Structure to design on (96 residues):
């Protein structure tokens, strides 16, 4: 039997209130909150937070705050990735 997370990743109907998914969304919200509260001069902190949040990244990645996403780990971006202000990733399935 598939887990709710497996169903979600396969694009099937799933229970969003599943405890595992709730915990993973809470972690993504924590990391995006920390990211969005950084100062303009804290580029290395921003990069570290994005690398922790996203499934995979290049070495050079920059997103203008604010950033929002569902889980983070479903987001895959390459080298020299840039996103402008108020970026929203709806990542219940993989993006990349």
């Amino acid at each position: 039997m598939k887990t709710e997370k497996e169903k979600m990743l396969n694009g099937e109907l799933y229970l969003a209130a599943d405890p595992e998914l709730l915990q993973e969304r809470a972690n993504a919200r924590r990391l995006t909150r920390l990211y969005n509260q950084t100062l303009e001069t804290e580029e290395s902190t921003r990069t570290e937070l994005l690398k922790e949040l996203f499934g995979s990244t290049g070495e050079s990645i920059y997103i203008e705050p604010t950033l929002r996403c569902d889980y983070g780990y479903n987001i895959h971006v390459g080298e020299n990735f840039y996103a402008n202000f108020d970026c929203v990733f709806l990542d219940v399935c993989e993006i990349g």
Remarks:
- Residues 19-36 form the longest helix (18 residues).
- The CA atoms of residues 58 and 78 lie 5 Å apart.
- The longest strand covers residues 61-63.
